[in-house]
Amino acid sequence: MAEPLVVVEDVQKHYGDFHALKDINLTVNRGEVVVVIGPSGSGKSTLCRTINRLETITSGSISIDGKKLPEEGKGLANLRADVGMVFQSFNLFSHLTILENITLGPIKVRGLKKAQAESEAHVLLDRVGVDKQANKLPAQLSGGQQQRVAIARALAMRPKVMLFDEPTSALDPEMINEVLDVMVGLAKEGMTMVVVTHEMGFARKAADRVVFMSEGEIVEEATPDQFFTNPQSSRAKDFLSKLITH
Ligand SMILES: Nc1ncnc2c1ncn2[C@@H]1O[C@H](COP(=O)(O)OP(=O)(O)O)[C@@H](O)[C@H]1O
Ligand SMILES: [Mg+2]
């Protein structure tokens, strides 16, 4: 049975006069992997940022695991802990070691003791293949390693859903796969994921569903196979033809 985990209903988002999200309806079920693709400026990041309430919405509603997104306060902090986010830029604290970057949230927000937080952190760092780097500073790691640390940091909060916003776009090509491999592993383990990416190989391998956005709207939703072999809208066809020629 499909269990809705993220439910976005009739969401409108304006930045001043600009209509950035137009009547978005999207349900992500528990354990589902949804890949969001679309041209630059189509609203993909805005959608991610509204789901974890980094951005307010103009109207509509968003709920996570049956709970409506609160406006602010402790409810919001709890909700943020339910939603892990990984951005294009890794946003690690540069003055903290890798281990400290991971344990900070669990100690402050989950209330773990330092020893417990560190032991959980080592398990996560091992899982993403960077436990040997635990005592280094972020600048001493490659971009691919830093992004894997960012994934571990998000997982350390025990999120119910993970949002990835173009997690490999800032990486050198040879580091893309090491990050995608971690994400494929997470998907296989049943993590609920919303992934904005242009990596079609990842979409084909890991996505249950592809959502195609253009100009603030969801234009198509389909299985990866349907979407890549037989896109329905002219906007999707146009987008895919441009991807393939590069
Ligand atoms: N804080 C903001 N203020 C005004 N306009 C914004 C803001 N953030 C994004 N936009 C606009 O909203 C549109 C969608 O942006 P974004 O969600 O970043 O698109 P994508 O991630 O698909 O490239 C763009 O036209 C962008 O210029
Ligand atoms: Mg974006």
From TrEMBL:
Residues 6-240 form the ABC transporter domain. Its EC number is 3.6.3.-. The keyword Transport applies. It is a peripheral membrane protein. Transmembrane segments: none annotated. Keywords: Amino-acid transport, ATP-binding, Cell membrane, Hydrolase, Membrane, Nucleotide-binding, Transport. This is Glutamate transport system ATP-binding protein. It comes from Microbacterium amylolyticum.
